[in-house]
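Table 4 source record.
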Amino acid sequence: MALAAGLQETLAAIFPGALSVDAAECLTYGYDNSRRRALPDAVVFPTAHEQVVALVQACRATRTPLIARGRGTNTTGATVPIHGGVVVSFERMNRILRIDPANRYAVVEPGVLNGELQAALKPLGFFWPPDPTSSAYCSIGGNLACNAAGPRTVKYGAPRENTLGLQAVAGSGETFRAGYYTSKGATGYDLTRLLIGAEGTLALITEATLKLTPLAAAKRVLRATYADITSAAAAVSRIMAQPVTPCALEFLDDEALRLARRHGGDAIPVAGAMLLIEVDGEAAFLPAAVEAVAAAARGPGLLDWRAAEDAAEIADLWAARKALSPALRAIAPMKINEDVVVPVSRLPELIGGLKEISNTFQIPIVNFGHAGNGNIHVNLLYRPEDPVQAAAAPDCLAAVFDLVLSLDGTLSGEHGIGLVKREFLPRALDPMALALMRRIKAQFDPDGILNPGKLLPD
């Protein structure tokens, strides 16, 4: 679609020198890490809240789709402008407005990179817990839009647990503030948590007040290998059932280890499955905490247990996890990557069921992820050029989701729904819940201009 009559001139007035309608540049802002791509009609680069207000009002007046974008690292097509319209890139709204250590919060604009914020907080003795794999180059706004988390979520929570308040512009073009500057608040509906994970379908976030956490005094990195995936999954349940909560608990199955070893070398062990565990806290209490976790990790199927003593050993233990993503990209550029979640106690059933699904459909499935939350990244490694595998892939994915839901799980832990999973949402939510979500969407965005075609199914 083309821009409505007069809209380009309006946008040029709102964004002097910060508007692009060149097709080549617009296409650069029409993709994300799902590898889907579409051409927007224009891209704008706001630097102030007032510009975002004017932008939403102009797009609403012309019924023009408006898609918020951080750095495009999401994997679900959530930032792909499938109906054209205007992409609003927040990369220039990238200021850390203030850090208040005494009250443990920071106020930032949505374009601030996660890694930049962590670097600014570290000398002050704080961090913001969400730490996606892409933290060096993903934006805070994108983290909030998808409720993107990472390994530390098991102990410290996701963005919903670590955000105090937001300033935003609804699809109606109206500004509102949700939340507080305090760690407690019981005043009305929790609009902050509603916006987080909404994938830009309700409002555009222009400012966030983030809850900060003191850095731990010490940390230990541990690795346990097991004869099979069932033993490792059972160990996860035992670890999470005892009082010491690790700050990271990562799982890699046998296929993940094999691929990582091929890419990362002999430092990566040969095993049926592996757990990577981080434990943090006060140095004086850390040995007892490590022993508590180790006692839970010991059990049937344990092959080897290692604790890193220095930075070099820490890097050695994490080698498999860091080598895995590039290995998967190299061998399966068209892989289907899902981030399902089940109750931790049901991880053994999930992992066993995924093996059966892989055998049934003859599609390799590689599993790894944040086992402490029951959040497993399920990777279907199919070859699109193989007609048999290409035909089987949709049914294989549906079987994965059916298995997850049968185990009281859900479709996504941190990637979100976006474009690629919205057709499965009715399997996960009952009709009344979906109807309420549509009514909420209509209140925030009465003309349906914000990120149309995403999250909620037709």
